[in-house]
Amino acid sequence: MSRLSLRLRLLLAGAAAILVSLAVAALALSELFAAHVERRAVAELSVQLDQLLAGIERSPDGALGVAAAPADPRFARPLGGLYWQIEAEGAVLRSRSLWDYTLTLPADALADGTAHAHHLAGAGGEPLLVYERSVRLPARLGGGGARAAVAMAAGDLAQAKRAFMADLAPYMALLAAVLIAAGWVQVGVGLSPLAAVEARVAAVRSGARRRLGADFPRELKPLAGEVDALLAEREAELVRARARAGDLAHGLKTPLQALMGEAGRLRTARQPAAARAIEEITSAMHRHVDRELSRARVATRAASARADAAEAMARILRVIRRSGRGAELAWQTDLPPGLIAAIDSDDLTEALGALTENAARHARSTVRLAARRQGGQVLVVVADDGPGIAPERIEALMQRGARADESGAGSGLGLAIAREITEAAGGTLTLSEAAPGLRAEIALPAAPI
After folding, report:
1. Sheet of strand 377-384: strand arrangement
2. Co-location of 26 and 139 in the same domain
3. Are residues 313 and 367 in the same domain?
4. The whole model's pTM is what?
5. Which of 86, 73, 89, 54 is nearest to 150 (CA)?
6. Is the pLDDT at 302 greater than 70, yes or no?
C-alpha cells in the first residue's frame, strides 16, 4: 500500500468508505422499510380484527359464532395467507383458511381491550404476523371474555422487503458512482497544490526560480518554508565553500610557485638533478591541487548558473589576442548572441579559455570559433589548423598531464580541467580531427528561458 501514489490511496480509501457507507445505509433503509411495512400490516390487521369482533353473534341454539366475517376472500381459502381465530367460553372459532390448524397464541395475560402483535409459526411452519386482542363480550352475548386474533403470512412482508431492495440497488449503485466521481474531483482539487510544489521545485532545480515562495495553502506553507530555508542554508554553504576553495588556491599555489622558483635557482646553480626532483614533485602537487580545486569550484556552483557563450568567448579573445602567439593568428568567429548555457560564467570562461589556448598553441595560422543551439544544448566549437593528432591518442590526450607536443610548453592540465568543468555542468567535451588540425566541441545544457 505504501508504494501506491497518494492520489490512488485517497481514491481507494474514499471509494471504500463510500461503498461501506452506502451498504450500511441500504441495510438501514431496508430495515426501516420493513418496520414501516409491518406497521402498515398491523394497522390492516387491526381493522380486520375490529370487523371480526363486530361480527360475533349467538346462534338460536346459544352457541357463539361469527355472523359477518371479514370480507377478504383469503380468509375463506385454505391456507390463503389471512387467518382469524377466536377463543371464548372454552371453544375455538377459526377461519376456513386455517382449515384444521389452531394458532398457538402466547400464554400472556392481556387486559381488556389490550392488543399485542406476535411473530408465530403457522401450519407447516409458515411464519405469521399475528395481531391479537382480549375483549369482554357485551351482555347481549352473555358477557365473559374472548381472545381474538388475526394473522397474515409474514412471507409477503419479506417479499416486499426484497422487492424494495431490488428497486433500491440501481439507485445506490448510481449514487456510489456519482460520489466516487465527486471524490476523484475533490482529490484532484485537493492535491493540485502539490503539483504546484513539484513544478516550483523543478524550476528551482533548473535555475528558473531561487525559492518556492509562500503563496501556497495553509497546510503547505510550513513545507514550502522549510524547503526555502534549506535552499538558503545550501546557498550560504556554497558561498562559504567557494570562499574556502579560493583561500586554498591562494594558500597552496603561492608556495608551489615558490618551490618552482627554488628549482629554477638550483638549475642555474648547476644542480639539475635536485631541480628536476623538486620540479617533478611540485608539478605532481600542482596537478592534484588544480584537480581538487576545479572539482570543489564546479561543485559549489548554484543551480541557477547561466552564461552567454558569445560573451565568455569575447572575454577570452580580448586577452589572448594581446599575447604574442594570439596576435599572429587569424581568428574566425561565428558567435551569435543569446546562446545561454546552464553553467557558471567563470567556469565556462575557464573551460573555453583552456581550449582556446591549446588551439592557439598548435595552430599554424587560423583558429575558428563557433557556437550554436541544437535541441536543448548549446554547442561551442574551437578548431585549429595545426598538425592535429592521431585518433588513437585523443582519449589519452584528455587525461591530466598528457600533452600532444611533449617538447612544447604547458602543463597538460588544460584539456582535463575543461573536461571536468564541462562534465560537472552536465555537458560533454569531444575532440576530433578537423582535417587539418584538431576540433574541440563543448556541448552544455541550455539554460531555461
Report:
1. 330-334, 366-374, 377-384, 438-445, 428-433
2. yes
3. yes
4. 0.52
5. 86
6. no
